[in-house]
Amino acid sequence: MGAENFFLFGMTAEQVQASWLPGSGYDPRALYQGNVQLRAVIDLIADDHFSRGDRELFRPIVDSLLGRDNYRLMGDFASYLQAQDQVSAAYADRERWTRMSILNVARMGKFSSDRSIRDYCRDIWRVQPTKIALLSEDEVTGDLLQ
Asked: In the prediction, which pLDDT does 85 show?
């Protein structure tokens, strides 16, 4: 696709791994306190803006982000905003956006979201797949008819 045709943001897999090491300095609460835009977003989630007055509804999410931040979302936020500015500029230029879109489709080759998720699970999140027993079509149909 070419680096000029997509918008990369956030930490690399190596940076994420390093952020878990003792003394790495990764501190989601410091990121929250040091970035006005990030603080505004988290505060909207923590307040009742999205929860119809229930300030406790999203408390576990906010606590997770400000505490451990397992997926390093706080660390990617500033980079995401910068990338979004680049996206907006590219989109405003119709010819550039069209060219990028066509080249992305033409050059993407073999892409598998399953492979991407498997790689993220293995390399970044370090989690293992869970096997789930699926019902056959007859079992599902039988359950519905009863």
From this structure: 97
